[in-house]
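Could someone model S-adenosylmethionine with this protein?
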Amino acid sequence: MDMWVREAQIDEAAMTYKVKETLVRKKTKFQDLAIVDTYALGRMLLLDGIVQTTIKDEYVYHEMITHIPLFTHPNPKKVLVVGGGDGGAIREILKHTSVEKVILCEIDKVVIEECKKFLPEISCALEDPRCEIFIGDGIKYVHEHKNEFDVVIVDSTDPFGTAEGLFGGSFYKEIFECLTEDGIFIAQTETPFYLPDVVKRVYDDAKAVFPITKLFMAGIPTYPSGYWSFTIGSKKYDPENVDLSAKPELDTKYYTKKLHQACFVLPKFVEDLTK
Ligand code: SAM
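Reply:
Sure, complex below.
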């Protein structure tokens, strides 16, 4: 009998993936967690039935949410990741030799435990001595840490449930205060195809707080529509105008210095959301 996992990407559209094997399925205190092995994309993490990451395409998301802000900041030493329990962002952040410490603030410790067990390619850097794991709510953590981080990365689930408060003006004000005087913030901010209102609202909220706000796109096959946005808020450095010539070449599969500059060029319907 064929086994398929079906993800409702919006109420009216779904994606299905043929499953070889279910590796774990459990209810945590916060969400329904599953890791399945799929034929098309390899192992896949789902939370509340929503695809979070897969072995085949995870590098796009994890490279773009990290290298764009970390190469924009001239000397990022201390980084905070809110969410991100799979560890993919941590793996990429630690490729930057300037980084002395990265805190992973994840609300659900079971995500970390199961990703360590079943997704070692993604979670492999979580044991690095430069990485410190804090289990708790990112909203509270950010509120309690002022003027501390060079880069804050919000690698969260979609804006519902525990992650709802991680999107929006009041949280961005707290992030502004959590950052050092030339700090940079980035968040994954959904798809402009299906959720243009969310993309616009988040962008406008960030723009109301940060002197420089930019939106960029990446192609992520397993996220709804395959076309995903990220929003950057920066106190000082413009991510679109960085001199990357002296930056080291990192071992990446999606990010390149050329792409860093190009990804801010937006199609008209997306650019319109930033006006
Ligand atoms: N790349 C992913 C995506 O866009 O689908 C996000 C991956 S990561 C697994 C998201 C994590 O955010 C989840 O493990 C979830 O537990 C965590 N999370 C949700 N709300 C949170 C909060 N308020 N504080 C800290 N972590 C949170």
